[in-house]
Design goal:
This protein has one domain: Immunoglobulin-like. The protein has 173 residues and is α+β, with helices and mostly antiparallel strands. Keywords: Membrane, Transmembrane, Transmembrane helix.
């Protein structure tokens, strides 16, 4: 009889630690989610970002647009706060395992004087594996990580997840 009670108390002591571990896990994940949403809200107060993609043409055939495995992501930024001086992009992460972004150095996106539209910046990407449909990237997101430099606040870090749009095709005559 004592053996059963001892085993039962052992079980309840272990369950206490399991509940303690689950509570700690929930608190840490809640803090992580809150921090990520705060970082993207800080960016959205100061600027708006659009990510467009463009595939490189294959040399042998002009009709094969979108069949290439290489391309560029175009980052278009528009500032909503005049205090924003420039935006520094430290990393770009794609949400699919076969998409690889090549960011060799940080990118600084500056704003011309008295303009809300910034100069465009581009980042190279590569698709690993089988070649996909041309609209494959339209269904995925890019996470852009960096910081905004402003006159009053200094460096304000951000992490924002943005959907991708296809870049307009420029016809060469």
């Amino acid at each position: 009889m004592k053996r059963f009670v001892a085993n039962g108390s052992y079980f309840f002591n272990n369950m206490f630690y399991v509940y303690l571990l689950l509570t700690a896990l929930i608190l840490v994940s809640g803090f992580y989610y809150w921090r990520r949403s705060r970082l993207s809200a800080e960016f959205l107060k100061r600027a708006a970002l659009q990510v467009h993609y463009r595939f490189h043409h294959l040399e042998n055939d002009e009709r094969e647009y979108g069949k290439s495995k290489n391309g560029a992501l175009l980052l278009k930024v528009k500032r909503t706060d005049q205090d924003t001086r420039n935006i520094v992009v430290k990393d770009v992460i794609m949400d699919h395992a076969c998409l690889s972004v090549s960011l060799d150095q940080i990118i600084m996106i500056t704003f011309p004087a008295d303009s809300n539209q910034a100069y465009e910046a581009s980042v190279r990407f590569r698709i690993r594996g089988a070649v996909r449909k041309p609209d494959f990237l339209s269904h995925h997101h890019a996470t852009v990580i960096g910081y905004i430099t402003s006159e009053k606040s200094g460096r304000v870090p951000f992490r924002i997840k943005v959907g991708m749009l296809e870049a307009e095709q420029v016809s060469q005559v």
